[in-house]
TrEMBL record:
Keywords tagged on the record: Ribonucleoprotein, Ribosomal protein, RNA-binding, rRNA-binding
Subunit structure of this chain's protein: Part of the 30S ribosomal subunit. Interacts with proteins S7 and S18. Binds to IF-3.
Function noted in UniProt: Located on the platform of the 30S subunit, it bridges several disparate RNA helices of the 16S rRNA. Forms part of the Shine-Dalgarno cleft in the 70S ribosome.
GO biological process, one term: translation
GO molecular function: rRNA binding; structural constituent of ribosome
Cited Gene3D superfamilies: Ribosomal protein S11 (3.30.420.80)
Membership in a protein family: Belongs to the universal ribosomal protein uS11 family.
GO cellular component, one term: ribosome
One family name in Pfam for this protein: Ribosomal_S11
UniProt name for this protein: Small ribosomal subunit protein uS11
Cross-referenced InterPro entries: Ribosomal_uS11 (IPR001971), Ribosomal_uS11_bac-type (IPR019981), Ribosomal_uS11_CS (IPR018102), Ribosomal_uS11_sf (IPR036967)
Membrane spanning residue stretches: none
């Protein structure tokens, strides 16, 4: 019996000139997603996808390569202005924004959406020594 291969149907996302850039930068990886105004992803990239391994994934150079790869696809589809939302404590936050701006997509605003604990988790009980 021959196996039939079914081609995956590509989602059709409306690309307008204005959108959002979501940059998630942790200690282990950096992920850049460029979305339209509704939050539907136009293009995305990560340091792992670009071939960086282990501790090289959280470097500013990796962030630069990731943002450039992601911005090139979105620029070709028609994205021209973005509002950048930056999340996390990682190294490549600024370099990712600069690379997006340098690739022809204008960054109009930068918003830090890093989650901050109000009181945090309950601490572990005291050790009995």
């Amino acid at each position: 019996m021959a196996k039939r291969t079914v081609a995956a149907k590509k989602r059709n996302v409306k690309v307008s000139a204005v959108g959002q850039a979501h940059i998630s930068s942790s200690f282990n990886n950096i992920i850049v997603s460029l979305t339209n105004e509704n939050g539907e992803v136009i293009s995305w990239s990560s340091a792992g996808k670009m071939g960086f391994r282990s501790s090289k994934k959280n470097t500013p150079y990796a962030a630069q390569m990731v943002a450039g790869d992601c911005a090139k696809v979105a620029y070709d589809l028609g994205l021209r202005k973005v509002k950048a939302y930056v999340k996390g404590p990682g190294n490549g936050r600024e370099s990712a924004i600069r690379t997006i701006h340098g690739s022809g997509i204008e960054v109009t605003e930068i918003v830090d959406v890093t989650p901050l604990p109000h009181n945090g988790c309950r601490p572990p009980k005291a050790r009995k020594v």
